[in-house]
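Task card 7
Instruction: Convert sequence to structure tokens.
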Amino acid sequence: MPDQSQPILSVKNMSVQFPSLSGVVTAVKNVSFAVGREKVGIIGESGSGKSTTGRAIMRLQPTTAKVVADEMRFEDVDLLRTSEADMRTIRGRRISMILQDPKYSLNPVMTVGEQIAETAILHERAGRRQARERTLAMLERVNIRDPQRVFDLYPHEVSGGMGQRIMISMMLISSPSLIIADEPTSALDVTVRQQVLSILDDLITERNIGMVFISHDLNLVKSFCDRVIIMYAGRIVEELEAAKLGEATHPYTRGLLQALPSLDHPRDRLEVLRRDPSWAEA
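Output:
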């Protein structure tokens, strides 16, 4: 039985560096955070280091990248020192990642049912019949009607919303402890997005697991997550309860909020985010 009081993921002073023709580029700089059995949002502009942070946790960065940290621990696993062979047993089974667009994540020449069942076969040594039964049950759990029919469809035959629910099924069939969701709803329209988020929320609560939710959408993170981390230029500049995002004090976070359109407070001209070089050095 896992210790409910201990964080699922603990990251201390993690940096991610990439070589370039002009020297080493540090894309993520000394970030520290922990994730318990909760939904933690990471927000910031493109290039702020959100996705790089998520991929570093999964050990999915390019071979040329260098990840250094005082600590990167997932449950009982030291992510800095565990072998790649061990990481292959952790990815998909204990840590799952939901990506932005299922069209680019699903194998176009395999049926969606085969791809979900393959996860159970590879990670849990399930037989094909058992894997199929679990896949059908998981498809039904994410509110897909007629799972028998959907099982035999190919990725190009499903809509974006159904594709994302299929991805959720694939990532959760092995009952992971942590999900990293990188812009999982940005390719969906508003109505379908709310359906997908509701399914995710129910599953996370039902299974008592943790989630890192990477997004550009401040309002979405505020309503969906428990805590929020704001990143700028590879650094964490602020961290607070998601419901209190409107009370943020850092000028970068304030600038992001003021740049949002609002039906309640319409303005002729939105604020332009002004950046201070000192934010990247704080």
